[in-house]
Amino acid sequence: MHTVELQQVRKSYDKFVAVNDLSLNIEQGSIFGLLGPNGAGKTSTIRMMIGITVPDSGQVRMFGEPFTRNHLKRIGYLPETSGLYKRMKVSEQLVLFGQLRGLSAADSLARAKKWCERMEIAGWMEKKTEELSKGMQQKMQFIATLLHEPEFLIMDEPFSGLDPVNATLLKDVLLDLNKQGRTILFSTHRMDQVEKLCSSICLINRGQAVLKGALKEIKAGYGRSNVHIEYEGPDEFLRENGLIQSFNNYGNFVEVRLAPGADSQKLLQMVAQRSRVNKFELVEPSLEDIFIDVVGKSDA
Amino acid sequence: MHNIFLFARREYLETVRKKSFVVMTILLPAMMFGFTILPSMVASKRSSETQRIVIATSDQQFGNDVRDKFLKPSEQSDIPARRRDASTRSFEVQVDTNVSPDEEAALTSKVNSHEIDGYLWAPASALADRKISYRSRASSDFATIGSLDGALREALLRQSFRKHGVSAEEVTDALKPIDIDTKKIENGRVTDAGGVALFFTALLLMILLYVTILMYSMSVMRSVLEEKNSRIFEVLLSAATPKQLMAGKILGAAAVGITQIGIWTLASSLLAAGTISMFGENIRLQLSIGNMVFFGAFFVLGFLLYSALGAALGSAVNSEQEAQQMQFFIMLPLIISAIFLTPVIQQPHSALATVLSLIPFCTPLIMFTRIVVETPPAWQIGLSLVLLVGTIYAMLSICSRIYRVGILMYGKRPTLPEIVKWMKYA
């Protein structure tokens, strides 16, 4: 069953088309990545999913039925920018969010306490929200999203503002929730962050889906056409070389995308002639590489 | 309903806990006290010093008449309140029958050396021309000049009657003042409510309404703006509708207003400060139970209406600067109401008063004033209430729509089909 189905959904603001006839399905129990650069239409898509805005045309189906407000109690939404009342106490605010989702005050408080302990902000519950650091506020917002134990979690840039330790903490919680059978949607432009988490993705650019499907299949389609080279010496081999389609140079380390049909061994020989090679590795393209490739083609 | 209650409670608690609420609750009555009671207290304190005045006139009898009338203006009067100001101040008045130019110079130098406070220069020629001068260091002491004016008038009358051979008793009888006792007829019964007192009751309550409505509608506007800018709306709208959010916010603000008025009412009844002192006169505020009920009703409804207006403006603007420019639209109807208050009080049944009191944005102030001064026909009160409630509901719908559009549309105006869509949706 699909948790979410978008059918030919379209949203335009004045003359600007934010989402252009987008269709996608999110499998129940999956971790889905809605990926794309800034301004691609990710947040607009999410807003239509949860009824903050209404699509100009097309249909949103949630849990197998046409979307209604009643579905909201089964959805948790973590927005991109933190939306919290600054002067409210952390505990009061969490209780308010719980109550808005139909929980009793006592229930909300008990759950908030449990989650604050797990997210390591239990000591801050009686403080005002504005006294919390950005990272702590992000964790608090995250808790507010989870209190009513939603079946479907929408995470818009969940890791922004979090240090690696807290990002891992959040990721572990999300993986736990996914194991319990909850569907998770990640929306982000940081593709490296969710690459390891998602089972399927939809890449969007300028409001249109440019690539979608199971991540494994997408990557398999691209093959091991990327090479990581660690080298010392000149880098002329990167230029005017028929074997290389594109490259990303980081100084003494370069990521190379081979031209279609090019032999990686020939490239190794070429590089070894002029520079000292410390590492030469054939790798799967990263999501980012795939994205740049696809977007480059669709923009051309 | 549950969500509306949650939002209202949140709004209420946040505002009541703010320092500005506490400050306002204490400061506003303090300011009113400062503007009304304090000056008269200071004035009566200052006048406890004895003032020495000389009446220079060639007619001894005339001089005595002026002095007696000036010192005891209310002896023959039935209204002890009149000229109370002058009678509580203490004066020492001498009659000087020497009106030579030398004496004039001598008196002037006495005033200058603080030996006396002032002198009335009334030689026979001046009396004939009725051009008398009072010379003192404080030429703007209106209370003293007013008392002197009255005393002079009466003394001149007595002088003229004496010349025609009328006895002193007959003159006193003829000069007996008339007291116009204002009574208000309410529902066919004559009540005790008087004109001046009614005016000040209406004025005071009007100021109270004006200040609190203005203050809290601005506060609602800011609160909406804050939610917009901090993007809380995204979380809230994934759990509730804009209408619930707006209704909660407005009801919360109304609850704050009621609390504030409640505190003031309680405090003032504890202090039994139903009497205020203004222009040296004591005025007992007159407000029947019925009028108190109307005050409560118009206060709450006015509050709801202007809070909704504030919320609508808050949804439409994007920054505090824009909000400040928009404040004018909240103030305008209030200012119009304030400008027309005096004509409405004087002629509560005029076409102007009737029309103004039926315009919902003016109703809270104008209709309430009319009710206090002269109860309008029941249908007018009923109609104004219906219009007011209808407008509040319409404002709520409009502002929740502006809210949704204002935050999500990036400055784009909604088309009619879109509005219809939203209405169906919400």
Fold and architecture overview:
The complex is a heterodimer of chains A (about 300) and B (about 425). Chain A has about 300 residues and is α/β, with parallel strands linked by helices. Chain A folds into two domains: about 1-215, Rossmann fold (3-Layer(aba) Sandwich), CATH 3.40.50; about 225-285, Alpha-Beta Plaits (2-Layer Sandwich), CATH 3.30.70. Helix content of chain A is about 35%, strand content about 30%. In chain A, α2 (about 90-100) crosses α3 (about 105-120). Chain A starts with a strand and ends with a helix. The model of chain A has no long low-confidence stretch (mean pLDDT about 85). Chain B has about 425 residues and is α/β, with parallel strands linked by helices. Chain B folds into two domains: about 1-40 and about 190-425, no CATH class; about 50-175, 3-Layer(aba) Sandwich (D-Maltodextrin-Binding Protein, domain 2), CATH 3.40.190. Helix content of chain B is about 70%, strand content about 10%. Chain B is elongated. Mean pLDDT of chain B is about 75; it is low at about 75-85 and about 270-285. The interface of A and B includes residues 77, 81 and 96 of A.
Fill in the keyword field for this structure.
heterodimer; A: 300 residues; alpha/beta; Rossmann fold; Alpha-Beta Plaits; 2 domains; 6-stranded mixed β-sheet; 4-stranded antiparallel β-sheet; 31% strand; B: 426 residues; D-Maltodextrin-Binding Protein, domain 2; 4-stranded mixed β-sheet; 18 helices; 8 strands; elongated
Task: Describe, in short, the structure shown.
The complex is a heterodimer of chains A (300) and B (426). Chain A is α/β, with parallel strands linked by helices.
